[in-house]
Amino acid sequence: MRKKLVIGNWKMNTSTEEAINLIVDIKGLLPADKETVLCVPFTHIAIGDELVLDTNIQIGAQNVSAYDNGAYTGEISADMLKSLAVDYVIVGHSERRQLFYESDELVKTKIDKVLAAGMIPVFCCGETLEIRNSGNYLEAVTKQLQNGLFHLRSDWFSKVVVAYEPIWAIGTGETASPEQAQEVHNTLRNSIREKYNDTTADNTTILYGGSVNAINASDLFGQKDIDGGLVGGASLHAEKFVAIINAL
Ligand code: PGA
Description:
Layout (H helix, E strand, L loop, with lengths): L4 E5 L6 H14 L6 E4 L5 H7 L5 E4 L17 H6 L4 E4 L2 H6 L4 H13 L3 E6 L3 H6 L2 H13 L4 H4 L3 E4 L13 H18 L2 H6 L2 E4 L7 H5 L6 E4 L6 H10 L1
Parallel strand pairs: 1-2, 1-8, 2-3, 4-5, 5-6, 6-7, 7-8
Helix pairs in contact: 1-12, 5-7, 7-9
The structure holds 2-phosphoglycolic acid.
């Protein structure tokens, strides 16, 4: 089901105390008719779960292991996340692809693990500045989508949330214009239409990420194929984050 959604991606930020304060502040500001997902660091998931009990906030994760439980020092499995009542897991964020060398193949495996555990993967794709300037960005992003997700049967695919995050706009203060973002979102939706069908394409939630803030959010969210945002920096400030949710 196509859903309008704003997801916060805290990345590797906040002490436990800061995390508690931030969740409490967001809880206090979030209108009763709005919902959101906070993808907090692994270490804050359990405390986050307690704080958001009986609210319209859900706690998500930013990554997952490609392996099942076993001898994988330092890894966190999909089963472990599921046991913490996690519903959403970011998979294939560009920081993981670039800094931790996650390949399309690894991302694909992680998608399968998240789905098999009964959670919703938030699949990220997006081009570098170099690719954007080369003019081949639509092909590049479509290829990421195909490589990461198109092995899925349509009933599995329909559980996935897609996030388009141009790398040149992440944490840079430079946002894709609403038209630039819409062009890519529309291309992604059309390739889902070609691979699957109209219903699947029209029901896929496609979020935009990359320097979303309270000022640019409503223009971005006003585009036909943009269903909300994946928000990094601004999700660390309760007022700014809730203003973005309110723009949806
Ligand atoms: P940003 O990050 O909002 O700070 O640009 C977005 C993201 O990386 O998900």
